[in-house]
């Protein structure tokens, strides 16, 4: 079964601009503070699997009212260690209770020799690396019994001369794994600014029919005076340049779920909802242009 058929076989997929369900406001959401304001919530199941306390019960109540999407941090799809069978078993059981339409994780390695590195580190852009990652993505999809998406990451160090560029590497993984792409447009912008390439040329290489979900976020300068390195902090409002990349994609794809990420400097929920509304206005305008293009006989 192709990844698209696997997604189509699941429950209705949400669209629009959603938010990450953070512990700082989980109790407020549980009480109904965002009802009618958010089309879906995204969670990191790493924070729930084999955990006790009040969070699982609160999440279950939220899931009765909202669609839930799943985005992981710790599979280390590009790592050399074997996949963690116990963790995957725990994920599978968690998803049986809270069935998201897919699971996603990053196109990176994040652990080695049994140790978690607590960072998302880039991979060599080679066919050998793409083959190995694709095999691991297919294995995870089979073990979790649901489609997998991979996300393009931000990176701050070039790995030297490689036969592929990043976009070609991403495409090769997608095709070999027959998986979807969680396209992070802020990561594209950050990498383009830091490494000196055109973000639209990068996006033009990506098969947009593989894009299943989008991430958008804010970023900050490492040094506000020098302003020569941008860091993907998820700790600031989204900049207009990143809005423009979101628009470029949605004008071509149509409706998709878009996740507004905020993991640092998290504002009060009502302020974050206002930011979501602003991004949604960008998204809706792009959707209207997509509809106009669809209706244009030219």
Automatic annotation (TrEMBL):
<dbReference type="InterPro" id="IPR036237">
    <property type="entry name" value="Xyl_isomerase-like_sf"/>
</dbReference>
<dbReference type="InterPro" id="IPR007801">
    <property type="entry name" value="MbnB/TglH/ChrH"/>
</dbReference>
<protein>
    <submittedName>
        <fullName>DUF692 domain-containing protein</fullName>
    </submittedName>
</protein>
<dbReference type="Pfam" id="PF05114">
    <property type="entry name" value="MbnB_TglH_ChrH"/>
</dbReference>
